[in-house]
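Ex. 9. Protein: Fis family transcriptional regulator.
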Amino acid sequence: MNFNQLKSIYPSAFLTDDSNNDQNYLTFPYQNQWIHFDKKQLTSSESKLLHLILNKETDIKNPENPQSKWYDFLIENNSILPAESGNYRIIQFNIKKKDTNFNKKLWLNAFKSFFENVEAAFFINDHYGLLIQHYSGYSLNQDETIGILQTLDDDFSIKTKGYIGQYWSISLEIKDIFNEEQTIFFNQLDKSKQVFSLPDIALSYYASEALFKSPIIQQLKEELIFHSEIKELITAIWLNQGNISLAAKYLYIHRNTLQYRLDRFYEESGLSLKNRDDLLLCYLLTI
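Predicted structure tokens for Fis family transcriptional regulator:
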């Protein structure tokens, strides 16, 4: 189904070059772009149908990417479980800024080599793919995965982002869990750090709709988050868990400069970013 056909059914659908982290839209990779649907105009059944259609539409039937039981289960909607037992996690990756010389097979083999007990790894479309890992007692953590992607980005002259899923026991429910993890990844792709997982974005992802509907939150946003520098300040303090020295390094400014900005924000707003509750409220305003 092409875009014009989808547009005739959902007139508000639109395409962009980058993913959109707006929680009001259901977003999918579409060819070399992203397609967005207004959630308010979709029923639950329509959302599930779009997942099935668009996941299938973006498949690449490429012989250099041999199919696996996991591919058939997650992408082709095969009802046969890809394994009999065990716990598995799905690592999603999305590659940007690649040139015409980029070798997907070479990159995928290099990426796989850093992980133990890889059950499957494949590209779903030209830039997006999955790695499925069986739990064996040890797994690379988020910082280690960031280091791997940064190394590969330098070697292949690309820019990669990733999402590390939770480990789940094998069951038919993994398919629904993957669909939600995929939606989270696409919607947070341009908002989160290079590699992220559910704990990183759970608050912003699941609270965003309620925050959007709150007159109090919207008014506070208008009065307090009126400049990109303020949003950047709050985000830096939040991501570094209130540590002023680390936040200063994150912003590439001197610690004293950051302290001055914190004091000035307190004078203007009455909210102290050194206070945990005040910081949480301010972070919610940036979502």
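Check your answer against this statement. Strands lie at 14-16, 25-30, 33-38, 87-96, 118-123, 128-134, 159-164, 168-169, 195-197.
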